[in-house]
Design goal:
This protein is mainly alpha-helical. Helix content is 72%, strand content 0%. It contains 15 helices and no strands. Helix 12 packs antiparallel against helix 13.
Length: 432
């Protein structure tokens, strides 16, 4: 069950990134009045993302990842004819490469760009305003559908992220009602998604993008009126000295024309009423959602409940059998730290192999002897600072400041630290 949660999170991340890049490209194209992405461009984007997500899981170095994305960029460059599409696709491949490289540098951990979906919000608002301004129904439809799907994916990803952490911490604990917990939480997440989708559809039904665009036009009309009033005041002041460039009558006629022709008051009132309706609907839906959630997670009342005091004097330690995880399975942070230490020790296999009864201290001493021996075997022309390097290595070996690979491994081995991505990075950087 744990492995498929990880796989679903990766697929959701792929869908989210595909829609996000697609909306950005559509926004740029529509700003340039070029139209939406065609099937060919969507296929290139999809293939690029799929190959990138597969390669970042199996490749071990960023250099090879760069080569793969370079090939993808070259293929995308030669598949299109227009120069502006070539620039857009190359930029897209570069952005996907940096995302993949960051994923590898984090130790293959999935993270979200924002705690809240601000990227979806700002991108959706920008596309809605552009579609209303250009009267582009295709862009508006694509934007609405994509934003709804991205919000659902984002919420479900947050749910799976919490489920992933919960299962990772309780993998060796038996008797957890995981199915019941998943059923309740899935219902809660589905309710929240339905609330958000309902709000978006209600906003679309009330024509919120057009209302917002009309409100912006009304604000521009008010700005024009303000400019005319300032001009009238300045004309009145300069008229005292015989120089007047705007008559009050002409200014009043211009203001009346703006107010009546652009329906400023009607647009502002309609905007306020629409916002109030949406706020009331959101409040009612949130209250219903909170009631459902509290009802689901409330404690079940039983008339025959009995309590019993625990005897805290007796301390019983039970042995539990730890099952070995398959080699192809997902590695927890602790297992990843152990693997880093194992690879570091095996990198010295040409010089020594640890014995059955060797401790981590014995292994570290053997590693230090190997490094000092390699320094002594260097040619005379390159060994001018051999003694200083040997003193430095010996000094690092004598330190107990928690920066050596053996100390970091022992802390993980005996459960003294909580392993995170920063701790993994420190283990990779440690020398001895």
């Amino acid at each position: 069950m744990y492995n498929w949660v990880i796989r679903i999170r990766k697929w959701l991340r792929l869908i989210y990134e595909f829609l996000f890049i697609m909306l950005i490209i559509d926004f740029v194209l529509c700003m340039s009045e070029k139209g939406l992405m065609d099937t060919k461009l969507l296929l290139i984007l999809g293939v690029t993302l799929v190959v990138s997500y597969i390669s970042r899981e199996f490749l071990a170095h960023v250099i090879t990842l760069l080569i793969v994305h370079g090939i993808l960029g070259a293929g995308a460059y030669f598949l299109v004819d227009e120069i502006y599409l070539k620039v857009i696709l190359i930029t897209m491949v570069v952005g996907i490469f940096f995302d993949a490289a960051a994923y590898m540098k984090r130790g293959y951990f999935l993270v979200r760009a924002f705690e809240a979906p601000w990227d979806i919000f700002f991108l959706g608002v920008a596309i809605s305003i552009l579609a209303a301004y250009q009267h582009n129904k295709a862009l508006q439809t694509v934007g609405y559908i994509s934003v709804i799907v991205m919000l659902c994916v984002n919420l479900f990803s947050i749910y799976l992220e919490g489920l992933d952490d919960y299962m990772s911490l309780n993998r060796r604990v038996k008797g957890i009602p995981i199915n019941q917990m998943m059923a309740v939480n899935t219902f809660i997440v589905s309710t929240v998604i339905c609330v958000i989708v309902t709000i978006i559809l209600l906003a679309d039904l009330l024509g919120l993008p057009k209302v917002v665009a009309g409100f912006c036009e009304a604000m521009l009309g008010l700005l024009k009126i303000l400019v005319i009033l300032i001009g009238i005041i300045i004309s009145f002041i300069t008229g005292l000295f015989g120089n007047s460039f705007i008559s009050p009558g002409a200014g009043a006629q211009e203001i009346e024309k703006i107010v009546v022709g652009e329906s400023i008051l009607g647009k502002i009132i309609y905007f306020i009423l629409t916002v109030l309706i949406i706020i009331c609907a959101v409040y009612v839906l949130i209250r219903i959602c909170l009631f459902v959630i509290k009802w689901l997670i409330a404690r079940t009342e039983r008339k025959n409940d009995m309590t019993e005091d625990l005897d805290t004097k007796k301390k019983v330690v039970e042995k539990t059998r730890v099952e070995k995880i398959d080699e192809g399975g997902y590695l927890s942070p602790e297992q990843r730290a152990r693997r880093i230490y194992k690879k570091r020790v095996l990198s010295y296999k040409k010089f020594f192999m640890p014995g059955t009864n060797d401790t981590t201290g014995d292994i570290e001493e053997a590693m230090l002897r190997t490094l000092l021996g390699n320094l002594q075997n260097q040619p005379e022309g390159e060994a001018a600072d051999v003694e200083k390097e040997a003193e430095r290595l010996t000094e690092e070996f004598s330190k107990t400041d928690g920066t050596r690979i053996t100390e970091l491994y022992n802390a993980v081995r005996y459960g003294k630290v909580k392993v995170d991505k920063e701790y993994i990075a420190n283990m990779k950087k440690a020398k001895i």
